[in-house]
Amino acid sequence: MKITLSPFRNTSTGETTPDEPDELMPTVQDAEIYLLKSGELTLNVPLTIEEITQFGDGSRELFIKSSCYSVIPIAVKEAGPTISWVFSSEPKSISFSVVYKESPDSLLEQAKVLIPLTRCNSHKETIQGQLKVRNPGIYMLIFDNSFSRFISKKVLYHLTIEKPIIYDGSDFL
């Protein structure tokens, strides 16, 4: 018996077929977009590149209630910089994702998932990552606790921005 992994079943033959159009297939983005549209938001902490450069060395605290999520939208005006993050959570794990929108007015359906929602054992080890900004827009760092029905989480995070060095040759003048 041949088994094909597809959500479509041919009702005339009873066989599963992968020949259906792709637009009917659920995408990887569904979980992140669904969370942003339907999930319960605990905190929204909008930041700009300029504000992140003023962070200093300390960590900031983000609270996420049980069954909810919190988001840090970062407004970026031009391509080039690298956004880096370091975070840990207590008392247990948290899920993390990065989603990009062209503008604050863009529909969530048009958002692009850059880092899929991933459960992180950030209560056991510090999680680090970075993302090179390729387009201006809003880069949303999502901390998701919707899987936890009873336990709220505290996330300690630190963000940095590394701007590209543009050499203009002026030191030879």
Could you explain the architecture of this structure?
The structure is a single chain. This protein is mainly β and 173 residues long. Helix content is 8%, strand content 41%. The strands form 2 sheets. Strands 1, 2, 4, 6, 7 and 9 form a 6-stranded mixed sheet that branches. The longest helix has 9 residues, at 30-38. It is globular, with a radius of gyration of 20 Å. Mean pLDDT is 83; it is low at 1-28.
Strand-helix topology:
Blueprint: H1 30-38, E1 40-44, E2 47-48, H2 49-53, E3 60-64, E4 68-76, E5 82-90, E6 94-101, E7 112-120, E8 127-132, E9 137-144, E10 153-162
Parallel strand pairs: 1-4, 2-4
Antiparallel strand pairs: 3-10, 4-9, 5-8, 5-10, 6-7, 6-9
Explain briefly what this protein structure is.
With 173 residues, the protein is mainly beta. It is 8% helix and 41% strand.
Which sequence of SSEs, written as H and E, runs from N to C?
HEEHEEEEEEEE
Main sheet characteristics: 6 strands, mixed
Shape: globular
Residues in β-strands, percent: 35-45%
* SSE class: mainly beta
* Radius of gyration over C-alpha positions, nearest whole angstrom: 20 Å
Distance between the termini: 76 Å
Considering DSSP H and I runs of 4 or more, what fraction of the residues is helical? under 10%
Average pLDDT over all residues: 83
Parts with pLDDT < 50 across at least 5 consecutive residues: 1-28
Oligomeric nature of the chains: single chain
Work out the helix count. 2
Beta strands, count: 10
